[in-house]
Amino acid sequence: MKKTQLAAALSLSAISLPTLAMVGTDARSAGMGGTGVASADHITAPFYNPAQMKKFEANDDFGLLLPSAFVGANTTEDLDSKIDQFQLANKELKSAQQAAVPNAARLEAAADNWKVKLKGLDNSGFSMGLGVNFAVAIPNSLMPVNVFSKNDVHTEFLIDIDTEQLDKDDDQLDAGTSNVQLVAGSVSDIGVSVARDVLVPYVNETISLGFSPKIQRLTVYNAFENLDTFDNDSYELSSEYQQKTTFNVDFGASYRPITPVTVALSATNLIPQELDSLNDNGSVATFRVEPSVTAGAAYDNGWLLAAADIDLTEKRLFKDVTKGEQYARLGVEFDALNWAQLRAGYSISMVDGSEDLVTLGVGFSPFGVLGVDVATQVAGDNEFHVAAELRLSL
């Protein structure tokens, strides 16, 4: 799609509200391979594990994340050029098929070129994610509280070609059996996280438990057109979309067997949600918010933080459209006297359809009060993510 169509798709997502997160929800975690279940602090805990709100220093009285933002994209190489080339080939084929005076040589050449260009579009498309998140944390020894907003939007542009066309006679070739689809789904959470230490009877051990009730808004958009009538230069997006508001909840637990070590478990979106969008062509896009369970462990001695998370469940955003996602994540952070941080990580895909990610990040936090974090993630040759955040800790 041209840049103007891409901008239109993203502006629609922003209006409908938010997007798919990359691996990790905030810039600090994104630089550490997306880890956070056992390594998030009291400010970002609601995004990973609300029990982690019990992780704060004695002099922490207030925390603010304002905001954390990210953008990511994964696209077929030269997608715009491939679509333009097919459109030209399709016009030439139609002209040769409909010529008043048949020309077998011209039709054969047009058909051969048409098949090459159509095959070049197989498994083509792009996906984009956008997100903006906020948090206000009030740590205390009794019951820390965090008011948060998490907003994600995911957009998929998909080309589904009919491979049977490649075996048909030249005068029967038709692009109308191949399709172009643009789907976008968003989920926006506004909630309150609370956490408390609980003494486990008989074993005399303390664990931290966290709970995040939240209002959740889902939005899904679905545009569908056959490849024969799709015009890359003048494609117009419909303004129709489906939306619903519901309730959901997250839960988490953290345990510290020894002071530097944390093991944790997080379960998010415990109430599964679905929202369908049916377009004029009869194509249905089902956007899903599924329960997700992740286990994590972290070691933190003050200057070195090493963390590992593993998804125990697979997540699929669009039913029958996108492939699932499930990762094992590793990350480290080196802290220079609480003034500067260097981060790195690696996310290993556990399912087909998603690639491994390499992550890097840096942070600057003068006096340990105002913090600026940036991160980048790369997967393969055509997938790239960036994240940035501003935080205040008093």
The string of secondary-structure elements, in order, is HHEHHEEEEEEEEEEEEEEEE
Strand count: 17
Please identify which CATH superfamily we are dealing with: Outer membrane protein transport protein (OMPP1/FadL/TodX)
The percentage helix is 10-25%
Structural class: mainly beta
Overall pLDDT metric: 88
How much of the residues is beta strand, in percent? over 45%
Radius of gyration: 24 Å
Give the quaternary arrangement of the chains: single chain
Shape by Cα distribution: elongated
Give the number of helices.
Answer: 4
Coiled coil: 79-124
Protein name: Conjugal transfer protein TraF
Signal peptide: 1-21
Keywords: Coiled coil, Signal
Your description of this structure?
The protein has helices spanning 3-16, 27-31, 79-97, 104-120; strands at 63-75, 125-138, 145-160, 179-200, 205-226, 242-255, 261-268, 273-278, 284-289, 292-300, 304-311, 318-319, 327-336, 340-349, 357-364, 370-379, 383-393. It has one domain (3-76, 123-393): Porin (Beta Barrel), CATH 2.40.160.60. The protein has 4 helices and 17 strands. β6 (242-255) and β7 form a beta hairpin. The longest helix is centred in the first third of the chain and has 19 residues, at 79-97. By secondary structure, the chain is mainly β.
List keywords for this structure.
single chain, 394 residues, mainly beta, Porin, 14-stranded antiparallel beta barrel, three-stranded antiparallel β-sheet, disordered N terminus, coiled coil, signal
